[in-house]
Amino acid sequence: MSFSGTYWITFGIGVACLGFFLYQYNRFTRNRIKRREALHNIDLFLKRQSELLNQFGDLLRRLELPVPPEIESARQASARAYQTSPIPGKAGHLKAADQQYYRLIRQANQYPQAQRRPDFSHLLEALEKNAAELQGARRYHNALVRDYNIRVETMPSALAALTLRFKKTDFLTDSNATPAP
How far apart are CA 151 and CA 166, in angstroms? Predict the structure, then answer.
């Protein structure tokens, strides 16, 4: 039994198509895993922020200073963002958490006697570092989403996305909040 040249050409095209779809599938899946990990990191930073805010309130109570209501508001906003799983909802809660956090930082500047204490300044530094890492994790997630959405919309990977039912995904929008001075 001998195979003609047409058979080998058809076979080669089929193998090439299969290879193309497997490659694209792996790229889409790898991106999805990275986005999941980025969201997990965001959740870790939100949880850490909530813990730091609790410590901040405890420190103010130990120093017998008035505890601003922004601490509880910021902690609750961080907890809501942490507990929300759909991307658009998480983005809205992140924005609210950022706004409450920066209000709290402005409030913290009204405690000059506490700012001289090393534990107070250390806690503020930890809060600021966590906020910067949270912002970085959010940017990383959005960069992954941007790359994924470009791949879904552009040829030739759009053919694989359509065939394999990969759809565009939502950004975790940046709140564009700037740290308090």
Answer: 10
